[in-house]
Amino acid sequence: MRAGTLLAVTLTLAAAGANAAMYKWTDQNGNVQYGQFPPTGVEAERISASGTTRKVEPQDSKSPQQRLEELEQQKKQQGEQEAETAATQQLAAQRRNNCELARKNLAVLQEEGHHRVRLPDGTVTYLTDEQKQQRVAQANQQIKDNCN
User: Which residues are paired to 125 by β-bridges?
Assistant: First the structure.
């Protein structure tokens, strides 16, 4: 029984070894090398169990840590771009809102008659012609600044 178990284990290991990938490549000195793992950055041929070969492109010579750092850098840049885009969109929305308010204020100021305003202390007063002209100038400046 022991010989049978030993034979089964040997055959299992031999079968597993036959399925393992083998590679053939030429090193820096021009010597042909064989192994299960070709060095990174080297063009290698995969050798099958039947003896046929298949060309394998060189692997990226960057380490997994370098690839991870590059990926993190790309994510960081993407996040910065998204934040910048969101800030630009928010600024554009604020400018549209400011434009609309300035146009409404100008339209009210250009109406005939006296214009009442509520002061910060809650009291109501009427604008003088000089105050009205100042507010018209402010509204026009706000339109110029925000309505492009």
Answer: 117
